[in-house]
Fold:
Amino acid sequence: MGLEGRTALVTGSSRGIGRAIAIRLAEEGANVIVNFRSREKEASEVVSQIEAKGRKALACRADVSSFEEVDAMVKEATRAVGPIDILVNNATIHRGRKVEKLPLEDWDLVIKSCLYGAFHCTRCVVPSMKERKWGRIVNISSSVGERGYPGDSAYGAAKAGILGFTKSLAREMARDGIMVTAVIPGFVLTEMTGNLSPDNIELIKASIPVGEACAPEDVAEMVTFLASKGHNITGSVHHVDGGIGI
Structure:
């Protein structure tokens, strides 16, 4: 159990990739704060699964785009479970349209949920990590942030920003024992990608060198490795994509 006694906060962990990460971290020994914005029932189900593994878990409602809500969440989590050792910035709201048709509020929603959210959570957990000279921050980015995609200017900008945030933060935190990395998932069948047509899904699968979509659990395995075994791994970007980024 490489994370025995550690506490992890996974944002947006009531479903999809975040859910898989939360459960896998618990399997590795961590207690887990399950963050959600609106899906309380699903978050409670994740908590139950973690507790069934003998770990502490707490569902915390917070919109990560709000610093006040994040600050309150981290304080509640620290009182109930313990100081945050591992932060996984996963939460993002997706909105996509051609740039001239993208509503201004949708641009704000995507940037704030992803980029502001990562900053808010990091700002709140870093002081206690510095005190204990140990921390792991894993930011979930996207291939759209590296290569772009038509109709995804907001999402691409937010996820590219996550990469810059990761690298600068890694340099800033290294002497404090805090390792900061980014993970770029490939094509993962989640609620977000499930809205694509079956034909589009098959076309995307055909373009992946290994010939299949990634599972949320594949991404969770990489995040868990970085959290539990990632000593001296910082500032790096890790692709879990079946080779689609080659």
User: Anything to note?
Assistant: The chain has a mean pLDDT of 94. The longest strand covers residues 178-185. Helices lie at 16-27, 40-52, 67-80, 104-132, 143-147, 153-173, 198-206, 216-229. The two ends are 33 Å apart (CA to CA).
